[in-house]
Amino acid sequence: MFKRKTKEKSTRVIFYYLLYGLLNDVLGAFLQKMHSENFFILYAFFTVAEFTFFCVFYYYILPPGGIKKSIFFIWLLFFLFALTDFFLVNNMDAFDSFTVGVEATLIILMCIYYLVVQIKSTNNLLVYSTTNFWIAITFLIYMSGTFFLYIMAESMLNDKAFQIQYIVINAIFNILKNVLFSVAMLMKSSQVTPQMIQRNNHDDLLSFKLKK
Amino acid sequence: MFFLQATENTIGFPNVLIFGTIGMFVMAITLVSVVVFHQRRVIKFNKQLQKLEEDKQQMLLKASISFQEEERQRIAADLHDDAGPLLATARLYLNENLIHQEPAVQLQSIFSAKQIIDDSIQLIRNISHSLMPPTLKNFGLESAMKDMFDKINGSGVINASARFHDNRERLTEEQELLIFRILQELVTNIIKHSYAGFIHLTQNVQGNFSYFRIHHDGKGILQSEFQKLNYNSRGLGLKNIESRIKVLKGSISFDIDSTQTYYKVTIEVPRELVK
């Protein structure tokens, strides 16, 4: 149904990201219940997958240019870094704080760059009336809010109080993320529709303009 | 409770976590707010600019329409007040009773009618010339300007001269007429308002642009005054100059030379040559 409703590729990517996130949470909860140590692998894989989804989304929303071309290389570097961190540094049995920290920093920087592009664009469309803007700020807020949490998770995860803090902060920002994504999905398409063109034509006909 | 426990067990870390999280969150929200408010301000400013541009366009259109109406009224008045009575008088001389008159009277009437018809022809020619100067059409802008300056020099009050440095290729008829009208209006304004002793027109070509510059030693105006007068003045002259410049896709600038002696008006026009 969602696929039929929206034709924008960027929004579809986020939809698949949310589906994957849901699946990951369910699987993670199941593994934890089974007292399996494999959920660290799950977390590490989710970090890479999350960054991949974001890169694909970012590729679709960014106007053509140098940064757009370099997205693949950024992703590749991050992927290699994540592999190194997980297999060589963490030895597959610890929370991937360092990778998450790098991921969050990259996503925050990329979101800031997107906002700068929006400021510079001459488009007279209000930025907060577009789906992509809401998705970008969701990533920005979520990554900023959970930045310290995930960075400290590796060393503090055994602390009982930290575990509670982790659950509370993570839950708050997850809820916020889902609310903001919902708002983004509810936004009307920012693309120019034939109806809009017709309406503009009427405006041109009725107003006393000289511009061609 | 748990937050307090954390504070006791691991000094500093929970504070870092809480304040860090809040700080990062506030930073993100501030960033988004700045972007939104900045964009709103830019859009508002753009809309204001757009409105100003539209107002200006409307003003120029109105000026152009008013000018056309004035021109039509003048032609109508010329035809009605001058040509009409002349032709009516000629008709009177050539009425039906002429055949019953003495041959001498007939000859006199025909001669008078001929005189009146000649006057009418001259009048219509003058009207036609005011619409499209024949010198401009046949010999180009340089000849038309020199012709105009000869007439001005004839008055003996102002010394007017023109020098065309590169006039090997003629511009299109439409461009020549528009440029001629602009220069004509500028010269008229100088004669009427500046009390100048001399007017000198220079023409040159650089790349794909033609440049025209009028120097005069009277009381001229600067670019800022031109803009001000253009917006505030009820007169149509300057507005017509600007609308013609817009049609030519050119530009006009008013300034004074470095010695503060001569005012100059420079027109830059992209060349459209006759094929």
Report on the architecture of this protein:
The complex is a heterodimer of chains A (212) and B (275). Chain A is built from 8 helices and no strands. Chain A is globular. With 212 residues, chain A is mainly α. Chain B is an alpha+beta fold. Helix content of chain B is 67%, strand content 13%. Chain B has helices spanning 2-9, 13-93, 103-131, 134-139, 141-155, 173-194, 223-232, 237-248; strands at 159-164, 198-206, 209-216, 251-256, 263-270. Chain B has a 5-stranded mixed sheet with strand order 1-2-3-5-4. Chain A binds chain B through residues 108, 112, 115, 118-119, 122, 124, 126-128, 137, 140-141, 144-149, 152, 156, 159-162, 164-165, 169, 208-211, and chain B through 2-3, 5-6, 9-10, 13-14, 16-18, 20-21, 24-25, 27-29, 31-32, 35-36, 38-40, 42-43, 46-47, 54, 57-58, 60-61.
Distance between the termini of chain A: 41 Å
**Radius of gyration from the alpha-carbon trace of chain A, in angstroms:** 20 Å
Global mean pLDDT of chain B: 85
Report the total helices of chain B. 8
Largest sheet of chain A: none
Number of strands of chain A: 0
For the biggest sheet of chain B, the summary is: 5 strands, mixed
- Beta content of chain B: 5-15%
> What class do helices, strands and sheet pairing of chain B give?
alpha+beta
Q: Could you spell the SSE succession of chain B in H and E letters?
A: HHHHHEHEEHHEE
Shape of chain B: elongated
Distance between the amino and carboxyl termini of chain B: 90 Å
Greatest contact between two chains:
A-B, 32 and 34 residues
What is the subunit organization of this protein? heterodimer
